[in-house]
Amino acid sequence: VQLVESGGGLVQPGGSLRLSCAASGYTFSTNVMSWYRQAPGKEREEVATISISGPGTYYADSVKGRFTISRDNARNTVYLQMNSLKPEDTAVYYCYVPGYRTWGQGTQVTVSS
């Protein structure tokens, strides 16, 4: 099982980024997928989760209305569209597949002017 994130970077407050997580080594389409983040000095927290087929989603209160999780089962990829970014969104973002308790390596998102 392997998860590879991409799409992080430096963005100004109010800007947008789209994170991608490419999955391999298991049946992607039959597994729930999640995004977590960890800021310096803080615990890792769940940001968003998407159900197997896509309609069912969960968002942390801090990102509701700004972030959107989606998946493409044909491409074995899960996405996190992040809009209206704030400095407090700065963190390492991780992709996670609960069914296999496997994490990606993480991608850094920095929101700063």
Shape: globular
Share of helical residues: under 10%
Provide a count of the helices: 0
Beta strand count: 11
How would you state the average pLDDT, rounded? 96
Category from helices, strands and their pairing:
mainly beta
Residue windows where pLDDT falls under 50 for at least 5 positions: none
SSE string, helices as H and strands as E: EEEEEEEEEEE
Content of β-strand: over 45%
Brief write-up:
This protein has 113 residues and is mainly β. It is built from no helices and eleven strands.
Polypeptide structure, described:
This protein starts with a strand and ends with a strand. By secondary structure, the protein is mainly beta. Helices cover about 0% and strands about 50% of the residues. The mean pLDDT is about 95. Strands 2, 4, 5, 6, 9, 10 and 11 form a 7-stranded mixed sheet that branches. The protein has a 4-stranded antiparallel sheet with strand order 1-3-8-7, with no helix packed on it.
Question: Which keywords apply here?
Answer:
113 residues; mainly beta; seven-stranded mixed beta sheet; 50% strand; globular
Topology overview:
Layout: E1 2-6, E2 9-11, E3 17-24, E4 33-38, E5 45-50, E6 57-59, E7 67-72, E8 77-82, E9 91-97, E10 102-103, E11 107-111
Parallel strand pairs: 2-11
Antiparallel strand pairs: 1-3, 3-8, 4-5, 4-9, 5-6, 7-8, 9-10, 9-11
